[in-house]
Amino acid sequence: MEYLLETDNLTKKYGNITAVDHVSIKIRRGEIYGLIGRNGAGKTTFFKMLAGLCKPTAGTFSIFGEPPEKTPKLRDRIGVLIERPGLFYTLSAYNNLRIQAIALGMNDDEYLHELLREVGLAEYEKMKVKKLSMGMKQRLGIAMSLVSRPDLLLLDEPINGLDPQGIVEIRELIERLSKERNITIMISSHILEELSKIATRYGIIHNGQLIDEFTHQELLKRCSEHIEIRTSDPTKSCTVLEQMGITEYKVVDKSIIQIFERLTESGDIVLELAKNNIKTLSIAVKNEALEDYYLAMTGGAKQ
Ligand code: ATP
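^ thats the input. predicted complex w/ adenosine-5'-triphosphate below
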């Protein structure tokens, strides 16, 4: 089967608020899909619907090609960590996993120890959760979501609030789970920069709507080096560029032209524009930062 997860116009309304608005996403096996959106964009609500924690107002979704309500056991094949893990703080890391295993009707102690090793908590298995650092709690939360041996992992903002070291550890763990266990992962964040280091594909969610989707390669291309040029006549400038055989360009804010090819030929471009009576007001080679790209997509200042 081609897609492990497929949503079709998935929608959730809370009274007048449309938290998730007709979102259709298809995720292939083995992908790490980054769902990016600001606070309140609808990421958590989207995950909650997939995890069966809230009911869609409209739309459908299927996991492994089947609607989950028809095959409730399918839910075990999804591991979920939404916001903060639900942990018993006065119990040890190991006992938290054990409770999860019992709740799922599983009895494989060795696997629980293996999970603790996998998330780097083997030395701390007897330590009470309240003594673990935030990053450790988050990794334990991921171990909890792996108890059912899922094929698909939904991680909602797993790096939120972590220090740089904690972020690196979670990132490495996610990469390992993807490579070594072949788990398909959907991870949300409001920081595109962070996801850009691990995701293979991205979706931007804004006001509940999926406004863009692109692969890692496309992201690199969109944020890559380019010539940025302002001229006295942007429309005519585009015609001149086309005549020069330049097709990889886009016009931003109706006046700035970004050119993504022939980066060493700024001089020729200026000359050609001048021949056509177009004045170059400014020209520079720029590299758009990922966050700027994301802000441009979602329109407006950082929250
Ligand atoms: P955050 O990162 O802040 O959690 P998010 O992208 O996960 O943001 P959601 O938590 O899904 O966004 O919220 C989407 C919208 O739905 C917001 O406007 C939020 O206020 C609203 N919302 C979420 N849950 C409820 C609820 N139970 N009742 C009413 N409104 C809700």
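Residues 192 and 294 are 7 Å apart (CA to CA).
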